[in-house]
Write a structure and sequence with these properties.
Elements: E1 2-8, H1 14-26, E2 31-36, H2 41-47, H3 53-61, E3 64-67, H4 81-88, E4 93-99, E5 112-118, E6 128-132, E7 135-138, H5 144-160, E8 165-170, H6 178-190, E9 197-202, H7 203-212, E10 219-222, H8 224-237, E11 245-249, E12 254-258, H9 275-287, H10 291-307, H11 321-331
Parallel strand pairs: 1-2, 1-3, 3-12, 5-10, 8-9, 8-10
Antiparallel strand pairs: 4-5, 4-11, 6-7, 11-12
Helix pairs in contact: 1-9, 1-11, 5-6, 7-8, 9-10, 10-11
The protein binds 1,4-dihydronicotinamide adenine dinucleotide.
The site of 1,4-dihydronicotinamide adenine dinucleotide (NAI) has 21 residues, from loops.
């Protein structure tokens, strides 16, 4: 099969890990046509726009997009490209699996969680203003439409992957209206999926339980900010940001990216671990229906990591990004 794909190299280590992931996917034998698209700090410096309209238009047109991380200044500066891309392209579901990889020593074995994060609203709606000097207000938007949509996505994912249980993570004891609505929507959608168990857990208790007994959970669904925080926590359970992939999915449109950021501390030095973006490519292959090729790439990454001879510094090795990538291609 042949596919039209977009590649957003992004900023910092983005171009390094994007090139690595592209090399691995090209080595699978699939016919992949890539269009490189500008976005992020580099696009802002070169084109005066961190998310050019042409990039948005292409992302909507291609079969799928693989995206490197893009930089966002803390405090002032332009609005996050990630948040803008997810909202403008209606990529409403953020899918973040956290699975133990053989060969990566972590506190727990056999972690196998899926975090489903609502991607378009909550505190990331970007509605902030200064009421009076010294007092700012950020609006946390929760709608029935987006909450039912993300709950349905979570249950459909659970069913497709033969999972047992979906847990709604919330703070409905304090945020009675907003998270009360989110929880109600999850409960209502759960009634349509009688083959899958449903329960709920308050976000602070969930954070504690995740670090003390991650096997207690299966699929977790939550609003935007909680999902951002808990999915990073889950990536820490399985070996860190360098190995955790993700997908942003809408109706007929999808962007696959690592959970990590631009890692300015190691950018441009060939030290970055490209595993997270390669595994994001694996999820992309599954989304495209290329299950067998996806399994092959995943197994190749797993075999290089479990041998441990050619892994990058974050996993305790001394290999460069390119050496690791070459080893994965050889294993393929
Ligand atoms: P970060 O994820 O870039 O870095 C955190 C730590 O993890 C650093 O020590 C870094 O070296 C390490 N790390 C991250 N990815 C790695 C990899 N592939 N291999 C080896 N080590 C890796 O998070 P930080 O520093 O908070 O954010 C830096 C920039 O990235 C910010 O501008 C932020 O807005 C942006 N960002 C972008 C994201 C995206 O585009 N999806 C997601 C998260 C952050």
């Amino acid at each position: 099969m042949s596919y039209n794909l977009a590649l957003i190299p992004g900023d910092g280590i983005g171009p390094e890990v994007a090139a690595a992931a592209r090399r691995v996917l090209d080595a699978t034998g699939l016919e992949l046509t890539w269009t490189e698209l500008p976005a992020g700090q580099s696009a802002f410096e070169q084109l005066g726009d961190p998310l050019p309209p042409a990039t948005l238009a292409q992302v909507a047109e291609v079969d799928a997009t693989l995206k490197g991380p893009t930089a966002t200044a803390k405090g002032g500066g332009f609005r996050s490209v990630n948040v803008a891309l997810r909202q403008k392209s209606k990529l409403y579901a953020n899918y973040r699996p956290a699975r133990s990889l053989p060969g990566i020593k972590t506190r727990y074995d056999d972690v196998d969680l899926i975090v489903i994060r609502e991607n378009t609203e909550g505190l990331y709606s970007g509605l902030e203003h200064e009421v009076v000097e010294g007092v700012v207000e950020s609006l946390r938007i929760i709608t029935r439409k987006a909450s039912e949509r993300i709950a349905r996505f979570a249950f459909e994912t659970a069913r497709r992957q033969d999972r047992q249980r979906v847990t709604c993570i919330h703070k409905a004891n304090i945020l009675k209206l907003s998270d009360g609505l989110f929880l109600d929507c999850c409960r209502k959608v759960a009634e349509e999926f009688s083959d899958i168990e449903f329960d709920d857990c308050i976000v602070d208790a969930a954070a504690m339980k995740l670090v003390s007994d991650p096997h207690a959970f299966d699929v977790l669904v939550m609003e935007n900010l909680f999902g951002d925080i808990l999915s990073d926590l889950c990536s820490g359970l399985v070996g860190g940001l360098g190995v955790t992939p993700s997908a942003n999915v809408g109706d007929g449109i999808a962007v696959f990216e690592a959970v990590h950021g631009t890692a300015p501390d190691i950018a441009g030095r060939g030290l970055a671990n490209p595993t997270a973006l390669i595994l994001s490519g694996v999820i992309m292959l599954r989304y495209l229906g290329e299950k067998e090729t996806a399994d092959r790439v995943e197994a190749a990454v797993g075999s290089v990591i479990s041998k441990g001879e050619t892994v990058t510094g974050d996993l305790g090795g001394g290999a460069s990004t390119d050496e690791f990538t070459d080893a994965v291609i050889a294993a393929l």
